[in-house]
Amino acid sequence: MKCISSFFLLLVATQASVLAQFRFSPEKPQVGQTVSFTYTPQATPLATDSTLEGRFVYYGAPTAMHLSRPTTAALMRQGNVFVGQVLIPLKGVTGAMLAFRNSKQPQRIDLNKGQLYVIPVYDATGQTVPHAIAGQSSVFTRSHFLYELGSRPDQNRVVSLYAQEFQANPTLYPMYWSDYLASQIKQKKPGYGPKVKLGIETYLASRPALTAAELTAGAQLYENMGDFPKANALRERMKSLDPAGSLVQRDRATAVRNETDWTRKKLAYQAYQKEFPNASYLPPLTVMMTDGYFKNNDIRGLVAFVEQQPVAHTDVLMLNTMAFQLADERRSLPEAEQLIKRAMMIQKTQPKSGNGDDRQRQLMNTYARVLEQQGKYAEAYTAYQDVINPNAIEDSDPRLNERYFLCALQANHAADAQAVTESAIRVGKATPRLKTVFRDWYAKQSGNTVAKADTYLTELEADLRADQTDELRDILINEPAPAFSMTDLQGRTISSASLRGKVIVLDFWATWCGPCIASFPAMKQAQSKFENDSKVQFLFVNTREGGPLQRVHNFMNRQPYGSYGFTVPIDASQRVSRAYKVQGIPTKVVIDPKGRVRYRQIGYSGDPETTVNELTLVVEMLKDEK
């Protein structure tokens, strides 16, 4: 008896404390009424704050919890208290829950120790309406309100509120049973497992006719406790109850996805589409099938398939990628044109978004490429003009700039594309091929020569090269170059002493090193720039090979490497690579004519143009250094 009295006194004291901080009028609000409330921040985390606002959500029965969208309640300060109002709607609402925070520093907040401040709704007799208590738990379990405020639900409180509701309104249990048991799982009180399982079994056994939703909820509860056999058993019952339901749809979709035979996969997809035209699993299956047609090289079948699909089931960017790949590979070009036209049509039907213009340019770029590869140069050139942004050349793709000028050349619009191309060259957004083609075209213009064209190209790149040179000077090093002597694949002795006075480029590599081999085309370009310069020597030092020398011979004798003209010294003992501080391969090292290491770069970026330009500039700088 003494224990009960102490608990009652504590409860009254707690309620009195809350009421001292939060009061509302009328004391027992009903639907349709405006509730005025007073908030006293003293003794709360906001005691020293002066700019406050309320944040509240309405709540109701579980089916009405879509109402729980957070709303701001304006507060007016009156002395040491703040006042505000909340309107109780006529339908669906059984209460409101509030928190208070600093409007300028939202992280400063009063959550009433995680319970929030509650305005329950009453009926005409002065009793709380059904769901006025359990609906508070629904705010914690079915909404993100508390998480938005930076907190988490107290599961003890959640379970307690459900229990209070069931005591007052036992008939509401079927609406909350799964939420109530899920809260007990999260509460994790000792012995909760058997208790919850008994709760599931008792509830399901008490129902005269189980619904798919009840079976799904039961299966999810078992799964949350790790009892997968019982969860699966309920799901099997659900399939029998609802043979066209989501579980059956999911299993059938998985079967379509896992089918490895392409012919059977198409038939399975067609059957699924016919049987479950509105299934949520259908759009991703459609995307998978779209990819399947492409990977199986059934491009005509792909076009026919795509044109039959609803707009919502089509991945625009996937079609764009496929069409561009077909265009680049010069195959199925009419079909590629159909694919990109379909993608462009769908894009126009979609809502405008922040990246809408970028996506439209992507599609138009592919369309232009497809037209160009079919020899429709006039149409392609018009399309490219919608892709090229003369005011954003610094952010452009060098490959796009190349395609644009080549197409303009074919369409007899090279002069119109000249300004954009010159800008691309100035800011380093031109490929080597574009610069070569532009130089050749410029040399053929009235009054020009090849020499004039070379000079003009140099002038266009002058500022860029100056900036790049300044940047490179900041990363140049200055270390003694260790002496070396190695034998190359032809049996010749290659020594640092014999190369004194030259700029030496050492490229350390091995046949098993993917990045090393990937960088070879770029290194060939760089070497070609100095093939007639007796003051520059490129050496491709094979190191860390870990295998027979014949493997290197065989590798270099293959095409295209046999035509590269590389001098390949062998560093079998890794003595040279260690002396030159090679920590990984590929590593490029450049030695100046005075025998000093001035540049060291490990790895390969994958950008051949950057590699060629940087090495070329380094070599030219060191050649010209006094």
Oligomer: single chain
Q: What's the CATH C level of the largest domain? A: Mainly Alpha
At the fold tier of CATH, the topology name of the largest domain is Serine Threonine Protein Phosphatase 5, Tetratricopeptide repeat
Radius of gyration: 37 Å
Total number of beta strands: 17
Known CATH architecture of the largest domain: Alpha Horseshoe
Report the span from N to C terminus. 102 Å
Tally of individual helices: 25
| Lateral strand order in the biggest sheet | 10-17-16-13-14-15-11-12
Share of helical residues: 40-55%
Q: Identify the CATH homologous superfamily of the largest domain.
A: Tetratricopeptide repeat domain
Query: Whole-number average pLDDT?
Result: 91
Taken together, the total number of domains comes to: 3
Strand composition percent: 5-15%
Overall geometry: elongated
Low-confidence spans: 1-18
Description:
With 626 residues, the protein is α+β, with helices and mostly antiparallel strands. It has an 8-stranded mixed beta sheet with strand order 10-17-16-13-14-15-11-12. Strands 3, 4, 7, 8 and 9 form a 5-stranded antiparallel beta sheet that branches. The chain is elongated, with a radius of gyration of 37 Å. Helices cover 52% and strands 13% of the residues. Residues 475-624 form the Thioredoxin domain. This is TlpA family protein disulfide reductase.
